[in-house]
Amino acid sequence: MPDAADHGKVVLAVILAGRKDLLQVALRHLQAEHFTDAIQRGIFAMCERYMDVAGEILPKDAMGDILRAANQPPGTVLQYEEYFDYLRGIAPEEADFRWSLEQLRELAAEQVTGQALAQAMDILKRGRTEGRKSYLGHKDARSWLMAKLADIDRSLHQADAPEGDMRTEVKDIVQEYSTRRQAALTGTAFVQTSVPELDEAMGGGLANGEMALIAGFTTAGKTSFCVQMAWHAAVLQQRNVVIFTSETLRSQIRVKILARHSRLEQFGLPEGLNSKLIKGGLLDQDGTRAFQAVLNDFQSNPDYGKCYIAQVPRGATVAMLEARLRRMSTMWRADLVVVDYLQLLRTAERYSTDREAQSRVVKDAKEMAATYLDGAGVPVVSPWQTSRKARDDARGGNGYSLSSLADTHEASATPDGIMSLLEPDDYFGGRYTTLALQVLKGRDGERGKEIKLDVDYATSYFAARSGSSYDTLVGLEQEQDGL
After folding, report:
1. Is 227's pLDDT higher than 90?
2. N or C: the chain end with fewer CB closer than 10 Å?
3. Fold for domain 189-480?
4. Close Cβ partners of 171 (under 8 Å, ≥ 6 residues apart)
5. May I ask the CATH class of domain 1-163?
6. What is the reported pTM?
7. Lowest-confidence segment of 76-80, 228-232, 324-328 by average pLDDT
């Protein structure tokens, strides 16, 4: 069975292979003391120091210079250099790195917990003196042990729940700003919502760690809007997207994604391919050829991000979704997570009311967004079903409000962004319509802003209103249907 030295080799081998991002993960979770092998401990300490000074992975020659400057004998320097070469010859996977990192933490926790228990027994039986203070007996043993375990727990979870004096963290603040600055300059700071006017109102789009809800009644097209967001992120932003679906079948989500893809100009289909015709196998000869071209492009274009669709059983928990995300993260990082939809998820614990259970689900989803990939975070988006009464009240007034999400207070309090979709009074079904999109809650952006969206449900297409073309299409559709 692998011991701490085996896990230390894996962690250092991955870092020294050039993974600066994983070195930063290791520095958040490990200290040199986690490594039981003396040479591993020394290399990790030098990696930490070199990262602080140069902002890069420790190279072999720099390691030798550091050792010689510390007056280490030539034999020791040679020993370190040979071990460095050995580590560079190992090629473990990122998944092995994350497993070994966690095992180093667990082994260290096991060791310090055992030491604390032994010291508490010493206080109970014989007494113990620390500095000028003496401990003896069961009362002192209990209070000392509780304080010691609290210190251990705080140390172990420092990366998950950090704390400290920010006056001593200027270097970290500068690094965080540099990262945000680079993201802003390269256009990668946010995942876009697919509607530029909405991105502007939301302060740029969706950021890592944020959760957003798309509220509306059954017929508004919440899932279709989330489909466009997912497609836009994967195809136009080259981001990796994960869609968890419980209400809509995975095969239907795939069809919706492909129908949206068919509206790209390169296919010469101004109205795209109707998802109902794809689903029913009713495309004509020209449509079939166009569908094959759409499939070929979606499959083979190397510039597109991943579009991973996972069917989850009704009644799944957020913890189940997190477990799948963790498994995927060993292969690639998710940049956007869509959950269709949160109100169908359940909690591991039993609650006396559905309202309390939904509150817990919303909180869990927000925590999933914030803690993904060691706290790097990921935007999480989900449709949110409103009641018929809330929809009717919205039609009769000034649209939706946060009180329309009355199922649970957490639905309005916890999310970072809430958008609503409201269909017009005279909409009774059909391919085309115009929706009122309202920003009910945003990070730093506008609140209460309304955007008119022209919608084509057959291709999951949503765009800020640009003219009267959709009025014409709606009129033609109604004439054809005899309305």
Report:
1. yes
2. N
3. Rossmann fold (3.40.50)
4. 52
5. mainly alpha
6. 0.68
7. 324-328
